[in-house]
Amino acid sequence: MRRSLVWLVTALALVAGVVAPAGSATAPVNTAPPQIHGQALLGSSLRVEPGTWQPDTVALTYQWTRDGAPIDGATGTTYALVEADLGTSIGVVETATDETDATGTATAEPVGPVRKPSLNLVEAPSIDGVMRYQRAVTADLGRVQPTAGSVRYRWLRDGKEVQGSKPRYHLDVPDVGHRLQLQVTYRRDGYRSLKVSSPKRLVLQRVPVKKRFTYSVRTKGPVTANLATFKKLAQGTYDDPRGWRAAGYEFRRVASGGDFTLVLATASMVPTYSSACSSTWSCRVGRYVIINQTRWQHASPAWNRAGRSLRDYRHMVVNHETGHWLGHPHASCPGSGPAPVMMQQSKGRGGCSFNPFPLPSERWTTR
């Protein structure tokens, strides 16, 4: 009975690894795997924290791996990440060897994928200057750490590119009422590119609003022109920073009434407003700013001979007749250059060139 008990205790000890049969070696047993410390960033170094073993007198060696494959020469406790590691996972295999040369291995949890480090934004890009029509603004490109090797940027209007890498941007007609922004891309070898956008800034008219006028739109006669287009283009003329808006006058369309009435009339109906009006041209009578449908659709012969656009003619005729309502009389050519918008340009220009917008000298009103 006693002999059987001794045999059982010995068998249990062998299973537990406490006692080994004579002439045999038991491999070291890993009780906690090694761990990798550090960031999986190109140019950084990783460090292995040893695992724990039984017995604790084992000697440890290492083999670093890339996606599970050994890395030549990478057998230290640290490993410096190189270009070949980009996009891969880095691991390490720890080998424990005891006094009898028995070995055991344990694998650390891999880190990765390895990526390039980021540039750190220190100062955000911005647009410097007054955001008004005809002004120029400049690009402040901001700063990153470490310093960028190259900086590229572009100007965006409502999210769409309008100008490439130029330090100054001149605010023009298409910018008014829209939001301008800088998009800057920083690059440096060994780092991920960083793309940053500045805050959006609204481009304003050249001058603030000084006077506000309201108007309604009516037709006279069997009008065939598209009325929605007429309304849109007329309002576009009033909003254009080259027009009466440059004097600080704001025009807003209302459903009825208003300070004046903008009329699209068939040619034969224009004279019904006054005997001073002609079926050939547009006219203004009292509160009525009357646009001749024929002129609206086809411009004037002189305008067409000069190769000017129908859109510019429409700007001109709305500006001219509204100018009369504002209190401006007819003007004459000062000798050369763009004609005053209050000049009867289709009847003769006296050396001046066609011009659809009021000159700076015309931007006053008696109202």
Task: Indicate the topology.
Layout: H1 2-16, E1 29-32, E2 35-37, E3 45-49, E4 52-54, E5 59-66, E6 69-70, E7 78-80, E8 90-97, E9 103-107, E10 120-123, E11 126-128, E12 136-140, E13 143-145, E14 150-157, E15 160-163, E16 168-170, E17 179-187, E18 194-197, E19 201-202, E20 211-220, H2 227-239, E21 249-253, E22 260-265, E23 283-285, E24 288-292, H3 293-298, H4 301-305, H5 310-326
Parallel strand pairs: 20-21, 20-22, 22-24
Antiparallel strand pairs: 1-4, 2-3, 3-7, 5-6, 5-8, 8-9, 10-13, 11-12, 12-16, 14-15, 14-17, 17-18, 17-19, 23-24
Question: Describe it for me?
Answer:
The chain has 367 residues and is of the alpha+beta class. It has 3 domains: 22-107, Immunoglobulin-like, CATH 2.60.40.2700; 120-202, Immunoglobulin-like, CATH 2.60.40; 211-362, Collagenase (Catalytic Domain). Helix content is 15%, strand content 31%. Strands 14, 15, 17, 18 and 19 form a 5-stranded antiparallel sheet that branches. It is rod-shaped and about 125 Å long.
Short summary:
With 367 residues, this protein is α+β, with helices and mostly antiparallel strands. The protein is 15% helix and 31% strand. The protein contains 5 helices and 24 strands.
Radius of gyration, taken over Cα atoms and rounded to an integer in Å: 41 Å
Helix content: 10-25%
Look up the CATH topology of the largest domain. Collagenase (Catalytic Domain)
In N-to-C order, the SSE pattern is HEEEEEEEEEEEEEEEEEEEEHEEEEHHH
Structural class: alpha+beta
CATH architecture of the largest domain: 3-Layer(aba) Sandwich
What number is the mean pLDDT?
A: 92
Distance between the termini: 127 Å
